[in-house]
Amino acid sequence: MDKFRMIFQFLQSNQESFMNGICGIMALASAQMYSAFDFNCPCLPGYNAAYSAGILLAPPLVLFLLGLVMNNNVSMLAEEWKRPPGRRAKDPAVLRYMFCSMAQRALIAPVVWVAVTLLDGKCFLCAFCTAVPVTALGNGSLAPGLPAPELARLLARVPCPEIYDGDWLLAREVAVRYLRCISQALGWSFVLLTTLLAFVVRSVRPCFTQVAFLKSKYWSHYIDIERKLFDETCTEHAKAFAKVCIQQFFEAMNHDLELGHTHGTLATAPASTAAPTPPDGAEEEREKLRGITDQGTMNRLLTSWHKCKPPLQLGREEPPLMGNGWAGGGPRPPRKEVATYFSKV
Amino acid sequence: MDKFRMLFQHFQSSSESVMNGICLLLAVVTVKLYSSFDFNCPCLARYNALYGLGLLLAPPLALFLCGLLANRQSVVMVEEWRRPAGHRRKDPGIIRYMCSSVLQRALAAPLVWILLALLDGKCFVCAFSNSVDPEKFLDFANMTPSQVQFFLAKVPCKEDELVRNSPARKAVSRYLRCLSQAIGWSVTLLLIIAAFLARCLRPCFDQTGFLQRRYWSNYVDLEQKLFDETCCEHARDFAHRCVLHFFASMQSELQARGLHRDNACRSPEPPAVPEPPEVLDSGSGKAHLRAISSREQVDHLLSTWYSRKPPLDLAASPGLCGGGLSHRAPTFALGTRLSQHTDV
């Protein structure tokens, strides 16, 4: 446990190595999944290609979608995409940045699966065994004598050593070696291509859009933090709400009991016990409520947060949220806090 | 456990150590990759050379690119290369230094692969079995040239029925393996000697220039990291203030409504003035926001950082950019604030 915690700490120590760590873990998981999977070629002419294509393409798709689903930021992207602009304009560059960074990380596992499948060779062998050039590799003179379906049936059994009966035509080992060699060559070319693409994208980016990149990075990080802080604030509020609610309930119950006990004797009890002084802790809780003390208001607050996010402008008098036009009390001195900051300089 | 902790701390201690750690990790991954890769020579005349040489060269290239990708300093180097000069002039020596350090570290994993392949011998045997001179081996005297070529192509495949248990195959295979290992060890020796000479003789040439370039390239890297951290802190405080403002506006709105409705009679308690944001701030919150409190200001700050980096002179009079640098609150020491990152 200690070891894992330290590895985790090392990976989290800077953002770059954290992302590299996540990519490494997903690559390992994908490779492990492949080695645990029991490949089972059907060795029948029509089915080989379909099975192999399925194994080559379906798990990468599943892994890609899984990578997107497991990333917490997908819901953040969807929220930011679908929210009404309200008082805060939407920036498509930020959405694009968020989508690109998520897609890049989700693509690691599928790429590793495809690479490992090609480098292993079983899938390719299963798919293309019927396309082997028999004339070049085996007894070329005997091949034209066979009808095509018979040849196909014979060659389809190449991946299955226990039922292969075509040694007179083509040695199984020769065909297997040939196809695996091509599969491995394709696999390495694929790996080379993807690393080249990743390298070009990463190195060439600072040459073109560095400012836009800095802005998008900042604002997408901001959106993430803002969402988390809003959730934290709501949780604090909910806690305070619950505490005050329960306290009020107990006080009311206490008050009812007292009324019940003294009903016969002191009918004017309410005057003294009407407003029992709440304990000191309750004042702090009420402050945390920030004046939002009922369900309807809280619901309106949450709706307003989604429909009409506040503008990215601090230190300015906020116009009314509900839009009823009433400006409230005199404007608080808007520049006071800004002047305080400048005075530090 | 203590050993691991010390190891991790050592690797985290400076950006160079982090890069060395990643380089080492990549070398270990290369060894694992090579040992788990299932070598499969096609044993066909034209394909052997392609496969053997391809396997000797393509994976090292991919590993080299991976080494460049995994190294953060390559991006920092390109950014430093492409930035506009602004208030801070560019020093090509720094960029050259960073480039050479990045390349040296990225070359480690490919070299490990090539050396492993040569010392193991399978690649070499597969690639050059057809190029062997049959005159050297007596067993080929009775065969026609095309038969010889066919036989030689099968040499890398031990289990093939044509060459199974054939002394000629073993002779050719041994010869090629010996050659491969000789080349492998020679390359290793050459590399070690070159590295040793480079390291020993470097202080003889331009040592001060080297020290300066090392310092400033380290500085550029740290500055970039610290800028990212400061942006994160700023975003956090900005978000905090924004959320609290939102709650406060809701509260003042309610009170305004409350006052408006109960205009005639006094409300039971005086409306609590919503706490002005000053109270919500701690001292550190103010320091982090630094008067950058709107979207336009943040965008302007980021584009100025790119297009006009501040001069490397802390005592200069504070201009638009200089002010930010000379009044950075000393709340972080260089190299020790590597925590609290949230990922996007």
From TrEMBL, chain A:
A single BP term in Gene Ontology: sensory perception of umami taste
Subcellular location: Membrane
Gene Ontology molecular function terms on file: calcium-activated cation channel activity; identical protein binding; monoatomic cation channel activity; voltage-gated calcium channel activity
Keywords from the UniProt entry: Ion channel, Ion transport, Membrane, Transmembrane, Transmembrane helix, Transport
Transmembrane segments: 21-37, 49-69, 185-204
Membrane topology: Multi-pass membrane protein
InterPro entries documented for this protein: CALHM
Leader sequence segment: none
Cellular component, GO annotation: basolateral plasma membrane; plasma membrane; plasma membrane raft
Region (Disordered): 311-345
UniProt family annotation: Belongs to the CALHM family.
PANTHER family associated with the record: CALCIUM HOMEOSTASIS MODULATOR PROTEIN, CALCIUM HOMEOSTASIS MODULATOR PROTEIN 1
Protein name: Calcium homeostasis modulator 1
Gene: CALHM1
Automatic annotation (TrEMBL), chain B:
Compartment list: Membrane
Keyword Membrane: yes
TM region(s), chain numbering: 21-37, 49-70, 178-198
Membrane association type: Multi-pass membrane protein
GO terms (BP aspect): ATP export
Stored Pfam families: Ca_hom_mod
Coarse class of the protein's main subcellular location: membrane
GO terms under cellular component: plasma membrane
Keyword annotations: Ion channel, Ion transport, Membrane, Transmembrane, Transmembrane helix, Transport
InterPro entries noted in UniProt: CALHM (IPR029569)
Molecular function in Gene Ontology: monoatomic cation channel activity
Protein family membership: Belongs to the CALHM family.
PANTHER family hit by this protein: CALCIUM HOMEOSTASIS MODULATOR PROTEIN, CALCIUM HOMEOSTASIS MODULATOR PROTEIN 3
Protein name: Calcium homeostasis modulator protein 3
Organism of this sequence: Macaca fascicularis
